[in-house]
Design goal:
There is one protein chain. The chain is of the alpha/beta class and about 280 residues long. The protein has eight helices and eleven strands. It has helices spanning about 15-20, 30-40, 65-70, 85-90, 105-115, 140-150, 225-235, 250-275, and strands at about 10-15, 45-50, 60, 95-100, 125-130, 160-165, 165-170, 175-180, 205-210, 215-220, 240-245. Strands 3-2-4-5-9-10-1-11 form an eight-stranded mixed sheet. A three-stranded antiparallel sheet has the order 6-7-8, with no helix packed on it. Strand 7 and strand 8 (about 175-180) form a beta hairpin. The longest helix has 24 residues, at about 250-275. The two termini are about 15 Å apart.
């Protein structure tokens, strides 16, 4: 199934106004990690933190609600969070670690857990993997190129990025600007073209904006552990939920886009196989 295995699918958002203000949509990643920290389900979370260089994230080991909120919001460029897992375990001494990643990153972490030859006594410390929906991701220089050249703005002036309604959006001090998604094609990372996973099927919980109204997120609790943590957060009042819309702007839209990514990935894999190029192996 294009959505993978899951326990339920709902629209959800954080009930914390500070998290809502800082987050991309419903603030689910920040809210879940903050709850898991408070309940000692995890001792720290590896997230995409900000740097002094605009929109150049770096992996950050967040160990407080404040640090999580400081890192909130989607960055449409790569943050190699996995590189700090060993440090979190061996230098910080964390026994229970959470992290967030795109579908390809989550798949890599699951492979690491399945075949922990170089990560012995590290991979088993990962207790909460949150996956974020991803259509494509961009090298930071590519972001700069089309924001400067096609949107006539700059990374320094950009306060928020988003993808929706067929456009790549930026918020700036002067307002909101949109660029048709088709005009960003060719700027994405090469690996995005063979990816067939939009919804982070291998995460404990996956979430994204597609299929939900503004200010809400679509959430798939997938594993037993992920479902238990999500339900506990809902019962604690940390997260509120409502049923998913089954119509063309809800699950139907998400399914359409997920299938489109599968088809595009298959086409590119077939093209590369015809050229004799190697292809990454999935589960």
């Amino acid at each position: 199934m294009v959505f993978g295995t899951y326990k339920e699918v709902v629209c959800a958002r954080s009930t914390d106004k500070d998290i809502q203000k800082a987050s991309q949509d419903g603030g689910i990643v920040t809210a879940l990690f903050a709850y898991a920290l408070e309940e000692n389900i995890i001792e720290g979370a590896i997230v995409a933190g900000d740097t002094e260089d605009p929109w150049k994230p770096e992996p950050t080991i967040a160990m407080s609600r404040e640090e999580l909120i400081a890192a909130a919001g989607t960055k449409y460029t790569f943050s190699p969070n996995a590189i700090r897992i060993k440090e979190a375990v061996r230098q910080y001494g964390l026994e229970k670690v959470g992290t967030v990643g795109t579908p390809c990153q989550i798949m890599g972490l699951r492979k690491m857990q399945s075949y922990p030859f170089s990560t012995r006594f590290v991979a088993d410390k990962l207790k909460l993997l949150i996956g974020i929906f991803c259509t494509e991701n961009f090298p930071r220089d590519s972001l700069k190129t089309f924001i400067d050249g096609k949107m006539h703005s700059s990374l320094a002036a950009t306060t928020k990025m988003d993808i929706g309604k067929g456009k790549f959006w930026i918020d700036t001090i002067d307002g909101k600007e949109g660029l048709k998604i088709k005009e960003t094609h060719g700027y994405e990372q090469a690996g995005c073209n063979i990816c067939r996973d939009l919804v982070a099927k291998y995460a404990d919980v996956s979430t994204g904006s597609i299929g939900s109204a503004d200010g809400w997120s679509t959430v798939f609790p997938r594993t037993e552990g992920g479902y238990d943590i999500f339900q506990a957060a809902v019962e604690a009042g940390v997260i509120e939920t409502k049923p998913m819309d089954e119509g063309k702007f809800g699950l139907e839209l998400l399914e359409k886009l997920a299938n489109s990514k599968v088809n595009k990935g298959n086409d590119e894999r077939e093209r590369r196989a015809g050229l004799g190029l190697p292809l990454p192996q999935e589960f």
